[in-house]
Design a protein that fits this description.
about 425 residues; alpha/beta; ten-stranded mixed beta sheet; four-stranded mixed beta sheet; 20 strands; about 30% helix; about 20% strand; binds inosinic acid
Length: about 425
């Protein structure tokens, strides 16, 4: 059985790019299947840092076919920029990139709509989107009448289609923006620009569903690279403070076209603490010097937007929920090095809501807002761990922390990351 997938179990930014990079060499295909340029994956190879939004991290490994599958919303300009940047640096293997002709395309109106709609209308708290047009593009995909898929850009009807959409979008956007603030979009220049993008991407565009189905049936090894984190899943996360795709494990098949029977290993990725960027409830958030300590040591600023991330203790109630939801077999714990230097570390082991203790992650955002985290406190460790290369080499208190985390989540820890480099990784066969 050939399929592995890597899923973030928190609110994104779990350093999944590093795990994908480590696993890539054991696979023939690396597949992005949801989200878009809202994701930011950082991979450090030979002291060189690569920040990728849309290209699968596997693009840096020779001999691996990298697929942007049908469930992704594609900003063609961004893909081209990333390809150009890799070419300038003499890195990557662009000839191995395949992009689905079914992927929906992000247009200028999606950015304008993202800016206008970024409000949770129920209580006024902003969702705090990345502003990359993700939600509006998915909305059009589901709505169908104003959607464009990558394959449409190669049809003669595309000019007329863009004219039709621009006419409607200009009307609705003018109503959304205060008078004079919205500059009407020009269909003919958009058509020209997207025709250029389409030509540039032509060698990469194909039916990736067929490609991946054939690969899976032939026993090729597929690695699915989840973007964002499971708590941002549109159906199962902290709705409406979520992204617009299925970012938990449930999205793999719908986004890639590969049935679940081909996926035999799910690796859940968690930070040794929690972060969140954008709005929405965050039960273990630390709005205090410890939170700032985590932000500084973890360089917790968005890869895509550079926004400071909100930081807090590890929330096992949330991670146990998302591990179950994504069918996680084993866990990778990332950024353990960030916790060094603290006198004590805390793990949220349960929630209290209306005086009752529960391990259940609430389905309604108002209840997530109301929970009181119940903490277990463990002694911290002063030693830096960035040079540790085995579990036994870690300070005893760090080992105890990891054992407890694994026990509480109910999954073995297979890998611990102690720094951004490929080498700063500890593989654990049994924990
Ligand atoms: P959108 O995906 O841009 O619509 O943003 C919706 C929510 O998901 C916002 O709170 C974003 O901050 C969050 N989000 C989207 N992508 C990422 C990511 O890659 N990492 C962390 N948060 C993200």
């Amino acid at each position: 059985m050939p399929g592995t997938c890597v899923i973030g179990l928190q609110w994104g930014d779990e350093a999944k790019g590093k795990i994908v990079d480590l696993l890539t060499r054991e696979h023939d295909f690396v597949v992005r299947y949801q989200g878009g340029a809202n994701a930011g994956h950082t991979v450090v190879v030979d002291n060189q840092t690569y920040k990728l939004s849309l290209l699968p991290s596997g693009i840096l490994t020779p001999g691996v076919t990298c697929v942007i599958a049908s469930g992704v919303v594609l900003n063609p300009a961004r893909v081209i920029e990333e390809l150009d940047e890799l070419a300038q640096r003499g890195a990557g293997n662009p000839e191995n990139l395949r992009i689905s002709d079914r992927a929906h395309v992000i247009f200028p109106w999606h950015f304008a709509e993202d800016r206008a709609f970024d409000k949770n209308t129920s209580d006024g708290e902003n969702i705090g989107t990345t502003g990359r047009g993700i939600g509006p593009c998915y909305r059009d995909k589901v709505g169908r009448s104003h959607a464009v898929r990558l394959g449409d850009l190669y049809r003669s009807s595309i000019r007329q289609r863009i004219e039709h959409i621009v006419e409607a979008k200009n009307r609705s956007l003018a109503a959304l923006y205060p008078a004079g603030e919205f500059q009407p979009l020009d269909a003919s220049s958009i058509h020209k620009q997207y025709a250029d993008y389409a030509e540039r991407l032509r060698p990469h565009v194909c039916d990736t569903t067929e490609l991946l189905l054939s690969a899976a049936e032939d026993g090729r090894r597929l690695l699915f690279e989840g973007a964002q984190g499971a708590l941002l899943d549109v159906d199962h996360g902290t709705y409406p403070f979520v992204t617009s795709s299925n970012s938990s494990g449930v999205g793999i098949s719908s986004g890639s076209g590969v049935p679940a029977r081909f996926i035999n290993r799910v690796l859940g990725v968690v930070k040794a603490y929690s972060t969140r960027v954008g709005g929405g409830p965050f039960p273990t958030e630390l709005d205090n010097p410890t939170g700032q300590y985590l932000r500084d040591r973890g360089n917790e600023y968005g890869t895509v937007t550079r926004r400071p991330r909100r930081c807090g203790w590890l929330d096992v109630v949330a991670v146990r929920y998302t591990s179950r939801l994504s069918g996680v077999d084993a866990i990778a714990v990332m950024l353990l090095d960030v916790l060094s230097g603290l006198d004590e570390v805390k793990i949220c082991t349960a929630y209290e809501i209306d005086g009752k203790r529960t391990m259940r992650f609430p389905s309604h955002v108002d209840d997530v807002r109301r929970v009181q985290p119940v903490y277990e406190t463990l002694p911290g460790w002063k030693e830096e761990v960035t040079t540790c290369r085995s579990f036994e080499a870690l300070p005893p208190n760090a080992q105890a922390y990891l054992r407890r985390v694994s026990e509480l989540i109910g999954r073995p820890i297979q890998m611990v990351s102690v720094g951004p480099d490929r080498e700063q990784s500890i593989l654990i066969s049994k924990s």
